[in-house]
Amino acid sequence: MAVIPESVRQQLKDHFETALSGPVRLTVYTRPGSSRLILPAGLGCPTCEDARQMAELLRDAAPEKITLEVVDVSRDAARVEIDQVTEVPTIAVASDSDAGRIRFQGLPTGTEFPALIDAVERASRVEHGLSEESVAALAKLTEPTEVMVFATPT
Amino acid sequence: MALASPQIKAVCVEANEFPQLSNQFRVRGVPHTVINRRASFVGALPEHDFVNAVLEGAGVAVDEPHEAVSGPTSDISA
């Protein structure tokens, strides 16, 4: 990943200063190696290192609020099973009291990066932004429900 | 939505990075939303319609089924 200019880091730091309230837990699921190598664990991950650096950028912008855990899926099968991670890289965003049910699969660049920042802010404030009517409707869900949204960076 | 309901896991997938997954769910345009890997709709919906689409895709009866939701998707083998 290209070196992030100090001005951008400072901008993010200033933004998080006011936008975050409670703690946020970030988890990055990675696999070692690039796409050029076939390792014992399978094909390497071409964007995992960038995803890790992106998560570190967020953590470093508010280290007193954001914690970051890096999970190597090739070494921690039990964790993969528990967290139900199917692909790497995956960045999971969670408020302190919750499991990481907001996930970004693949490197969230372009227009997805602001979405990642928004997810961090919302998790911090535990603020879903939905209407009372929507919340009441979603309460009808009694089984785990996966909502996958395919997007592109541009 | 994942913050509003403990049942929901929200996954934003970078479509170009996972072509196999994109093909599996017949992603031709974005945003393309897949619910429980069986029902899907294309495009951005207003909040009310989006919520109803998720409920319908999860098999919960809704008052106003959304015409944009299709599924179960026939080519999903998993």
Structural summary, described in words:
The complex is a heterodimer of chains A (154) and B (78). With 154 residues, chain A is an alpha+beta fold. Chain A has one domain (6-138): Glutaredoxin, CATH 3.40.30. Chain A is 36% helix and 23% strand. Chain A contains five helices and seven strands. In chain A, the strands form two sheets. Chain A has a four-stranded mixed beta sheet with strand order 4-1-5-6. Chain A has a two-stranded antiparallel sheet with strand order 2-3. In chain A, helix 1 (6-19) crosses helix 2 (48-61). The mean pLDDT of chain A is 91. Chain B is an alpha+beta fold. Chain B has one domain. In chain B, 22% of the residues lie in helices and 19% in strands. Chain B has two helices and three strands. A two-stranded antiparallel ribbon of chain B has the order 2-3. In chain B, strand 2 (32-35) and strand 3 form a beta hairpin. The radius of gyration of chain B is 12 Å and the shape is globular. Residues 73-78 of chain B have low confidence and may be disordered.
